[in-house]
């Protein structure tokens, strides 16, 4: 029988490059939920705001699915920032030439779990 994997939240097609979000995600990975939210609230980046939304959603999923859980008992078990679809646009240049403008997007997956769980 497979062990329980935690509570998950996913945000797809976020309009920001994953390379800008990943350094922020590295700051909160494997941290307690309350500490992770405090870190994200104090960072000025757009990526911190996007990550905070997904982390709050994962915690809300955990608390809704299991009424016995406490917010202080949660931690960020897994956090992935993956590439989403890339929109290709034309960028006009001089002498009738053009460059490609790549508008990147991201998929963020967060799994929160209880601190004392034996899911690992």
From TrEMBL:
Gene, per the UniProt record: rplV
For this entry, the protein name equals: Large ribosomal subunit protein uL22
Q: Which Gene3D superfamilies match?
A: Ribosomal protein L22/L17 (3.90.470.10)
Q: Which family does it belong to?
A: Belongs to the universal ribosomal protein uL22 family.
Give the species: Oceanispirochaeta crateris
Q: Does the keyword Oxidoreductase apply?
A: no
- Function, please? This protein binds specifically to 23S rRNA; its binding is stimulated by other ribosomal proteins, e.g., L4, L17, and L20. It is important during the early stages of 50S assembly. It makes multiple contacts with different domains of the 23S rRNA in the assembled 50S subunit and ribosome.
> What keyword terms does UniProt attach to this protein?
Ribonucleoprotein, Ribosomal protein, RNA-binding, rRNA-binding
Q: Which InterPro entries match?
A: Ribosomal_uL22, Ribosomal_uL22_bac/chlpt-type, Ribosomal_uL22_bac/org-type, Ribosomal_uL22_CS, Ribosomal_uL22_sf
């Amino acid at each position: 029988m497979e062990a329980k994997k935690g509570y998950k939240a996913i945000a797809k097609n976020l309009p920001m490059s994953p390379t800008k979000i990943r350094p922020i995600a590295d700051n909160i990975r494997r941290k307690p939920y309350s500490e992770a939210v405090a870190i994200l609230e104090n960072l000025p980046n757009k990526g911190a705001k996007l990550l905070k939304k997904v982390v709050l959603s994962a915690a809300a999923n955990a608390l809704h699915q299991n009424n016995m859980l406490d917010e202080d008992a949660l931690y960020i078990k897994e956090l992935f920032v993956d590439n989403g679809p890339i929109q290709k646009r034309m960028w006009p240049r001089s002498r009738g030439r053009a460059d490609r403008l790549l508008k990147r997007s991201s998929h963020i997956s967060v799994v929160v779990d209880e601190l004392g769980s034996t899911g690992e």
